Amino acid sequence: MDVGQLRIGLIGTGPWATTVHAPGLTEHPGTELTAVWARRVTSARPLAEAHGAVGTDDLDELFSLVDALAFAVPPAVQAEIATRAAEAGKHLILEKPIAADLAGAQRLADAVDKAGVASLVMLTLRFSQQTREWLDGLAASGGWRGGGARWLSGALLGGQYSTSAWRLDASGGALADIGPHAFDLLDAALGRITDVLAAHRGPDDLWQLMFAHEGGATSTATLSLRLPVQPTVVEVAVYGEHGYRTLGRKPGTAGESYTALLDDFAAMVASGTTTHPCDVHRGLHLSALIEKARELAG
């Protein structure tokens, strides 16, 4: 370990942990992947050994080895372990949604605040350079009246995430999985979302939502992970007195976004900063929107 590197433990060994978190934490100059945790040590060890880390199924052992934790597990599991980790003084890199429900998200945010630890939510698109430049341009122009997000995919029809239990659960699906990304971008582009005006869930887990924003803008979101759309459609657009501006998703940017997130995370820990546009309170805000949408959709 280099002097100044954060010792980070990875919670989870699934596809996202293997392809994004583990290599990102290993290769970043400010972090060291020190340990990998799974409920069965036989699952943790192969990934850990591939990156020169310790594999464990013991949370107390994990906490003794690390300064921070990165999560790649279902929301309910994350909220339980992350709350305990914050109480133990560990900084957190969280997946979205940050918990399975709003109550769990609130408990986690309270624990982070009380402990005074740094936290970031893995809102991948927000950390891409393309998105940052797009949002900067919108802020400089102003005058945006509305917008919309479309995220249409067949990810749950087949592939590496199609057997993910929490995504297949009635409380998961598109709203919980890709909803946070879409809502976050609309919020960042048009002003804080203050209310969910309408929410409807149709066949194929197809969600149609409408939001109110501070300043009077309105927006819509259309989401599904069960439509045979190839390639996946990811688009956010805004419109107003300066015309119509769109943001798409470039393929292969997850690793670059994770590197940018780790840049911010390492800087937060080094400076003692606990606030960030994508910290745990962002996750709490997005959880509140998800809960309201569920209520409206019945």
Share of helix among residues? 40-55%
Strand arrangement across the biggest beta sheet: 3-2-1-4-5-6
Give the structural class.
alpha/beta
Shape: globular
Please, what is the average pLDDT? 93
Distance between termini? 51 Å
Count up the helices. 11
Output the radius of gyration.
Answer: 19 Å
Pfam families: GFO_IDH_MocA (PF01408), GFO_IDH_MocA_C3 (PF22725)
GO molecular function, one term: oxidoreductase activity
Domain Gfo/Idh/MocA-like oxidoreductase N-terminal: 6-118
Domain GFO/IDH/MocA-like oxidoreductase: 163-243
Keywords:
Gfo/Idh/MocA-like_OxRdtase_N, six-stranded parallel beta sheet, alpha/beta, 11 helices, 298 residues, Dihydrodipicolinate Reductase, domain 2, NAD(P)-bd_dom_sf, Rossmann fold, Gfo/Idh/MocA family oxidoreductase
